[in-house]
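User: I'm new to structure prediction. If I give you an amino acid sequence, what do you actually give back? Let's try with this one:
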Amino acid sequence: MTTERTYYTTAEAAEFCRFRTTGAIRKAVKEGRLRSVGPRGGHGTHIFLREELDRFMRGGKPHATEVAGRPRVPPSGGRDERSEVDQEVEQLDRAKAHEARGGRRKEGGFLIRGRALDPTTGKLREVRQALPGADALEAYQTLQVELQRVRDGLKISRPETPSVQQVTAITAVAPKAEVVLAPSTLPFWSDYAVSLLERKVNEGTILSAKTRVQWISVLKCHLIPAFGHYRVDEMTRRIYFQWRDGIAMKIKAGEYSPHTVNDWLAIFAVVTNAAFEEYEIDRASPTRTVVKFDTREHPTYTEEEPNSSRPRRRCAS
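Assistant: Good question. You get back a string of structure tokens that encode the predicted 3D arrangement of the chain. For your 317 residues, that looks like this:
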């Protein structure tokens, strides 16, 4: 004994109706000539009742039904029939992004939407109104009245348009309070640089006296005068590049050697990167990438080939 099926998917409905593809089924649903009971599982393929497919095959008129909680109106004849299938009365509590197709609004209420044939133009006219304070019955009745006005060749009733003053009063946004940032409590770059040098010496990271003297000289003569007045979290990529551009001009003028300046950059990067990591500053360190100056046209002189023509620059004590 074969049990007669009750539900059919879109593909099975197309096969039942002897369609070669499912496109004809989807088109019939869109035009309101065929009704589905809803998507499978809430978001899957359409599901159709056997009796609905039989009615469709016979060419009968669709019955009034409710799809996805939205009342729909069955067609009543001719071109006007196909248009009225699109009539919808939908509760407005969805996001405003869907308002164009009758979505919900936070304000609540209903959006009525439908189309009817205007005898004065021979074209379909759309009825679309938001009814914030209406219930479902009132919204449905308002839609029918407005559609009938279109069929009678009358103008569609429009809700009273608020004045500019009313709109301004509703949409006015209070000015934002000025945000006052609390002053930084982190140490100055100069204090952190000196403490980091002391820490490296005590930990044994810096062992040689020559390296220690180099750090002290570079910090005292070049880096602390340039960056010492900034707190560590005030250091930015812009501040670094402004200083670097000035140094580049002096290299071009022959005041500094790029070999020497590259040593300064290395020390500057070590101090700044360590500060950003230690205090967990929530942005990248301005010295996360440091591009050294080109030294190809500036040879390094050895003891056998001293640069006797250029006196050594010393920091004023």
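You can read the tokens as a compact description of the fold. Here is one thing that stands out. The beta strands are 7-9, 38-39, 46-49, 66-67, 70-71, 88-91, 110-118, 123-131.
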